[in-house]
Each structure stands twice: as structure tokens, then as C-alpha cells.
Write a structure and sequence with these properties.
The complex is a heterodimer. By secondary structure, chain A is an alpha/beta fold. The longest helix of chain A has 27 residues. Chain A is built from twelve helices and seven strands. In chain A, α1 crosses α12. In chain A, β2, α6 and β3 form a beta-alpha-beta unit. In chain B, 41% of the residues lie in helices and 22% in strands. In chain B, strands 3-2-4-5-7-6-12 form a seven-stranded mixed β-sheet, sandwiched between helices. In chain B, strands 9-11-10-13-14 form a five-stranded mixed β-sheet, with helices on both faces. In chain B, β2, α2 and β3 form a beta-alpha-beta unit. The longest helix of chain B is centred in the last third of the chain and has 18 residues. The chains are: A alpha/beta, B alpha/beta.
Amino acid sequence: MRPSDRLGKSELVWMWTQMLRVREFEERVKRTFVEHPGVLRGHTHLGDGAEASIIGALATRNPGDPVMPSYRCHGYPLVLGTPSKNIMAELYGRRDGICNGFGGSMHLADPAHDFPGATGIIGAGIAHAAGVALTAQVKKTSQVVYSFFGDGASKQGAFHETLNIAAVWKLPVVFILENNAYQAYTHVSLEDANHVAGEPLSNKAHAYSIPGVSVDGTDPLEVYDEVKQAADRARTGQGPSLIESKFYRFSAHGNAITVPPVPTQFPKHESVEVYGRKTEYEAAKGNDPIVKFRRQVIERSVLSEPEARDIENEVRAEMEEAVRFGLASPLPVPEDALKYVYA
Amino acid sequence: MGKEMMYGEAIATAIIEEMQRDPSVVFYGQNMGMTERDPMLKMFGKDRIRVTPISETAELGIAVGAALTGLRPIVELWMSEFMLVAFDQVLNEAPRLRYMSGGQVKVPVVFKAGYGFAAGWAGQHSNCLYHLLMGTPGLKVALPSTAADAKGLMKAAIRDDNPVVFLQHFLLTLEKGEVPDGDHVIPLGVAEVKRPGTDLTIVATGWMVQKSLAAAAQLEEEGIDAEVIDPRTLAPLDVNTIVESVKKTGRVVLVDQAPRHASAAITVAGEIAEHAFSFLKAPVRLVTAEDTPVPFSEPLESFVLPNENKIIQAVKSVLAKHAATV
């Protein structure tokens, strides 16, 4: 029996609803580039395609378990309970943003919802996650820390150094390597030794003598099963695990890097834009985790077709409101820039 | 004669010309040379143009090792903050090895990085970190403000036998300027007077040169004649050109996009205090960023950074000081 077999109707509906919320939020961010040019400044990264992986993993949490995502971080606080309108307001640089307009897309934080904070420097957050796990270990809180990072980050020294220490200290952390096939603009075949050797990226766990598995990150239940085992292991003092969750990022790495006054905009995915691999992109789109899981919940009679449509409409309305709220929220007071430098 | 080109294009042209001139120059970094269609890869092949994983410590450390043994690597870092991940290589390896070897080895590397992206890139991608670099003997720091300087300084950086951090300002990428034809090389350590003037001296680097020149143009309409100097490299720093200007004008405004504390501007102020104190008719004024990280939202970001208006106000206060004391 798989751990996910025990999930009841309410849990499965929750999972599908959260997947939809993450997707719809990211769609609305992307649309903002077109509908409200200039509102999104700097660099914004979207997680569409990651929904099954994010939610399959987070569904295994106990209340209060901390979550440490990468800079591609909009989806996690959404699932953890941060109001979507305050995340959107942050991306728009507004006063009602969860970081008061100081952080922006890459640097979200909501400690009140178990999200101590994301960093814009690739790999740095992996070490932070182990530090959060150290707190849990020292304070004996029984928490497990969920550390999410991309395939690109697994080539940083911070990844390797952290996995080693986490293994030695048996820190309660689950490392979830989100392999979305592209490290920014570079295909994994150009930069990962395991991939080049035809082996899974989870092999990196062998170097630190911890469990390493690879899962289909487009199937939330498969992700759930593996992460659940890893979380149980961490919670019972047996130390960290590495899970490679394989899926495809549907949007480009981020908006095109433009110099003002050229407005920010979203390019095509790099598989098409840089590598000219249209069929690869279309095949990935044909394996959309949200479409697949919708089919599954309806086939298993978890939801009826009209119930599913009701949820879709609710989610659309929620994110419509998030955009409206974000645009209506005032910009910060300039002088406030001097706040928060020191505690 | 020259050719008009963009700042970013001028840098690329310098690299191409130097790679054509010297087969020991190699160029690598993240997210570059990824496909057969890449123009640099077509020109120079897979040995000399490489894409790397996100592994700054290895990227910079490998460059140091290669430089010790006969290559002249250029590492594309994109963002100067990414250098911080491997700061040991930048501050404690590349600039020290020659000295510690008693002059036996040399480390001809170029660490190329963008900086100062004041366009909503927020706390970890918009910074001006040159103050951390210019205090490291053995390291050179170039930060061009025009297309011509960008090309000339990049060529000099590649030919230099020392580690050079080449900082290109993101907001100047598309700025066009006349670039001299031929083998245009600008020696590292030579400032340029970007606008001659008699009433006061403004010293600025990078994007702030543009802001200072715009301020000077406005001030001219009010009968104020400002001289604008761009050091072009912070290490070596051409103290002499700055001091000579101050001796002439007696008034100084130092403009720096970085926070004030321990800034390049403070260093220049120290040099002026020692070498031109008796020529000063008013206290030196600094126009710098506030001592904060760079915030995300536009009104916050604008508040902390220097701009034309802040420069103009500083110039006027320096001139008013003079009037009050005469």
C-alpha cells in the first residue's frame, strides 16, 4: 500500500485546488506583463509546470513544518496560506505586499506561514534550509524542513557542502531537487554530470550516503509517496534524503532582461527560443500535471465535472481579485526605504 | 574616425578582437555558448567558448589555475553579486598568488560582471560592490561609462597580466557612443575629463557619469561650469588627474551609486584631503546611495539612489558655501 492510498477525498480535493491556485496565480502574473506593462519590474520567475511537485510534497507536511523554496517562490506561500492578494501586491511593489514592497518576486518571505524566506542567490537557500533544520533539532520541535531548489542549484558548492553536513548531523530536512530540465537558459545535458552519464540526478545523494530517489514530478501522488517516506525518516531522527522531482517548466526562465525604458516582457520558453526544440516543448505541454490530475480525480469520483468547474471558477475569481487588489494597493512611502536595515 | 556602437556591443567587440589576436584567450560562463548557432562558438570553437554549470567557485578557481599556466581566461559572471559566491578566488586567490610566489607567477584573468541594475532587481542583484574590490592590492577594477571606454578597457583588461574585475553597468548596455577604429586600448589607471569646467569638480563612475554630465548641462544654463571626471578604473586610481582638477576649481562633488559608508567616493575624498586640502574653498560633498540595501519597489529604489537633482543640489550647496565664506 502506498502512503497516498490513505489520502481521503478532502485531501485530494485540497491538492487539486492548490495546484489550480498556483497555476492561475502564475498565469495572472504572466498576463500582467501584457495587460499592465511596467507594473512588474526587475526579474520575475514563474513556477507553472511545478504544481504537482510543489503540492505533492507540501501535502505531506505536519502543521508548522518550515518550507524553504528557491527564488522561483510564488507557489509555496500560496499553498501555505499567505493570501494571494498580498503576494501579488508584493510582485507589484506595493505597500500591501507581504514584504512591504522591499523584496519582490525573488525574495518573498512570510514567517507567520512557515516560510522563513527565499533568496535570489542560487543554492544559498539550501544551506539556509539546513540551518532551519538545525533550529528544529536543537529546540526539539519535531519539525521537518522542506528544502526546494532547482537542478541548477545542485551544482553549487552550497548544495554539496550542505548535504554533507546535514547527513553528518542527521538534520531533519528533505531536499527536493526540482529538475525542470533547464538551469536558467542552459539545458541540463550541458551542465550536469549525472545527466551526461545517463544517470538520475538523485545519484548525488550517494556521495553523502543518504537516500536518493527520482520521481515523476508531474504526478502529485507519486511525489507524495516519496516525500512522505523522506519526511517520516527525517522526523524520526534518521536524517536527510534527496528527492529528484522531474517535471517541465512551462514558462521561460524569467521575463526578458530589459533595460528601462524597454518594458519587461515574457519571452518564449528557451527550448524554443534558444534551442529550437518545438516538439520537446509541445510534448511537455501535453503532459500537463493539472490536466492529468483533474482527469484522475474525476475518474476516481473524487469530484464530479460540475464540482471541478466550480472550483476552477472560484480559483479564477480569487486570482482576479488578487490582481485587482495588487493594482489598487498604494506604492510605498519613499522615506520608508530607511527602515529595516538593522533589527 | 570611429564607429557608433552600443556599450554592450563594444564590450563584445573587444572580446572578439582579443580572441582573434591571442589564441590563449578563453571565454566561459553560465548561459552562454549553449548551441551550435551561438556566434562566438562558431567563431572560436568549443575549446575556447564554454558554458558552465552554476558553480562560481569552480568557474573562478579554474580560471585562476588556467591563468597560472598560460591561458588568459575571461569569466562571464553576468551579475557582480554572483562573484560573492566565490569571493575567496576574487580577493584571496587571484590577487595574492603572484605576490606570495615572490613574483614567479602571474594571474591574467578577467572577471566580467554587470552591476548597478537599478530597475527593480532588488536587494541581491542591483548592487555596486567595487568598494570591496578596490581595497585589494593585486586586483584591478575597471568600470567604463561609455562605449569607447568599454571597448578600450576590456582590451586592456584582457592583455593585462593581473586579475582584472571588469564591471559593466547594466543601465548603460544600450547606450550608443563613438568608438575609435583600430586597436583601441585604454590603459588601466588613467582617468578622463569627460567635461572640462572651471567652477567645480565632479568625480563619478559608471551610470553616475551620465547623471553627472546631465546635471552639468543643466547647471550650465544657470551659469555654473562643472568639470566632470571619470576615473574609469578604481584600482589603479588616477589620483593625480582628480587632484589637479581640484587644485584648479577648489570645489568638489563626489558621486557614487554605492552606499556612502566605505565607498569609492570616500576614498577619493581622502586623497583630496591629503593632496589638495589647501586648495579647497568649500568642504567636499558626497552624493551617494543611502546606507541601505537596494529596495525592490520603485519609489523606495529612487529614494535611496543618487540622481541628477541630488547632484545639482550638492553642487549648489558647495558653491553657496564658497559665497558664505568669502
